[in-house]
């Protein structure tokens, strides 16, 4: 099957381009790559500016034990769109030929980057539990350059009820380091909240 993406990455790329974030130092990080449909879009864009995309995912639908509203589990949602080949096989096929993708097949809690690794844009769409949203934010924010932005998918989306309070808590805690917050609509009207770093 062809790798879909469920965010509307064009809107994210438009946000980056409107603000010329790609001219800042660093690369892009995506936490939650799934089938790679969005990774490909980010990587094609980043390649034009000699930038890389770090794509982080366990690529294992069984790992994410999040229970959404109505009792559905994240694993069930991920599996629903997979038929035949594994998530990782679909992802690998999607990014084939893109030499600026760095794939990190790990649990995002285990992520650590050297100080020199900077990002100008981060996108968080991995595990939707509060502790993971907070972890993923901390990983990205530490490496994010001034003027760069990090986005949280599923903000104000009822299916994953822990995301919005997690993000609101982050915004309250880091308010002095945040220059601006911007909410943009994606596919199916699911929002991404972007935080621009001061
Ligand atoms: C909602 S999907 C991402 C969808 C993708 N952004 C898109 O639009 O195509 C969430 C992804 O996060 C991954 N994930 C869940 N928990 C994770 C964790 N602890 N560490 C890394 N990846 C994780 C899942 O394997 C899944 O592929």
Short description:
This protein is α/β, with parallel strands linked by helices and 198 residues long.
The profile of the biggest β sheet is: 7 strands, mixed
Rg computed from alpha carbons, rounded to a whole number of angstroms: 16 Å
Strand order of the main beta sheet, please? 3-2-1-4-5-7-6
CATH topology: Rossmann fold
At CATH's second level, what is the architecture?
Answer: 3-Layer(aba) Sandwich
Name the CATH homologous superfamily. Vaccinia Virus protein VP39
Amino-to-carboxy terminus distance = 41 Å
How many domain units?
A: 1
Tell me the structural class. alpha/beta
Q: Estimate the helix proportion, in percent.
A: 25-40%
As a percent range, the share of strand residues is 15-25%
- Secondary structure tally: strands: 7
Pick out the low-confidence regions: none
Q: Ligands bound here? A: S-adenosylmethionine
The CATH class, by name, is Alpha Beta
Give the H and E element order: HEHEHHEEHEHEE
Q: State mean pLDDT (0 to 100 scale).
A: 95
How many helices in DSSP terms?
6
């Amino acid at each position: 099957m062809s790798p879909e993406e469920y965010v509307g990455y064009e809107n994210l790329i438009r946000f980056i381009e409107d603000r010329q974030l790609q001219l800042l130092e660093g690369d892009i990080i995506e936490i939650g790559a799934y089938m790679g449909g969005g990774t490909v879009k980010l990587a094609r864009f980043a390649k034009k500016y000699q930038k890389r995309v770090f794509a982080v995912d366990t690529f294992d639908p069984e790992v994410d034990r999040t229970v959404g509203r109505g009792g559905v589990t994240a694993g069930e949602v991920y599996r629903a769109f997979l038929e035949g080949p594994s998530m990782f096989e679909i992802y690998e096929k999607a990014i084939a030929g893109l030499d600026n993708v760095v794939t990190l097949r790990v649990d995002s809690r285990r992520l650590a980057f050297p100080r020199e690794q900077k990002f100008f844009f981060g996108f968080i769409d991995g595990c939707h539990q509060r502790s993971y949203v907070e972890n993923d934010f901390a990983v990205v924010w530490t490496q994010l350059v001034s003027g760069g932005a990090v986005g949280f998918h599923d903000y104000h989306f009822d299916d994953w009820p822990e995301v919005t309070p997690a993000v609101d808590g982050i915004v309250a805690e880091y308010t002095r380091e945040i220059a601006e917050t911007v909410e943009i609509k994606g596919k199916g009207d699911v929002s991404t909240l972007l935080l621009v770093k001061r």
